[in-house]
Amino acid sequence: MPVTDVKHDLDELTLTITAEFAAPVERVWQVYADPRQMEKIWGPPDYPATIVDHDLTPGGRVTYFMTGPDGSKHAGYWLVGEVDEPRSFTFRDGFADLDFNPVPDMPLSDNAYTFAAHDGGTRAVYVSRYESAEALQQVLDMGVVEGASGAISQIDVLLAA
To answer: Where does the sequence pass through the membrane (predicted)?
Structure first.
């Protein structure tokens, strides 16, 4: 399993996941830069993603939905901030309705994904910052650690293909 560390800090309002991959930084970057590859890893294994819009450039937007085992659809969006290909990107992640309108009573997170060469492969650090301890606790209660860890673990399979 590529996830090597998971920490959440209610005082700092952050969830940080660290993972290591046996692939160069440029290859790991492509997983997020290519919407068809991203579909294979965004969301837990039993909630496959469909990427609808994908603009991983500053000011860009990514929209997606995940389909549950029962056929239910759960949508979300990214508002892309900074992009430093292939080392990092930032985005605001939010829950959306199926028309990709933000759901106002659900938590938003500001995310920074960084990729660095490490031991012949890549160390990825995924940091999500929430607006309040209650918002972070809400996503923790929804299973974000398990879901994100499962999603990140799918990257190894994709990289090996």
So the answer is: none
Per 3-state DSSP, the chain is made up of helix, strand and coil in percentages (nearest 5) of 25, 45, 30
Question: Is 56 within 8 Å of 80 (Cβ atoms)?
Answer: yes
Long-range Cβ contact pairs of 47-53 (< 8 A, separation 24 or more): 47/74, 47/147, 52/100, 53/100
Strands 121-130, 88-96: parallel, antiparallel or unpaired by DSSP?
A: unpaired
Per-residue DSSP letter, 102? B
- What's 49's domain CATH number? 3.30.530.20
Mean pLDDT of 49-72: 97
For 19-60, the pLDDT digits (tens) are 999 999 999 999 999 999 999 999 888 899 999 999 999 999
The number of domains in the chain is 1
What span, in angstroms and rounded, lies between the C-alpha atoms of 61 and 83? 12
Task: Please state whether the peptide bond connecting residue 86 to the residue before it is cis, i.e. omega within 30 degrees of 0.
Answer: yes
Q: Which domain holds residue 21?
A: 3-160
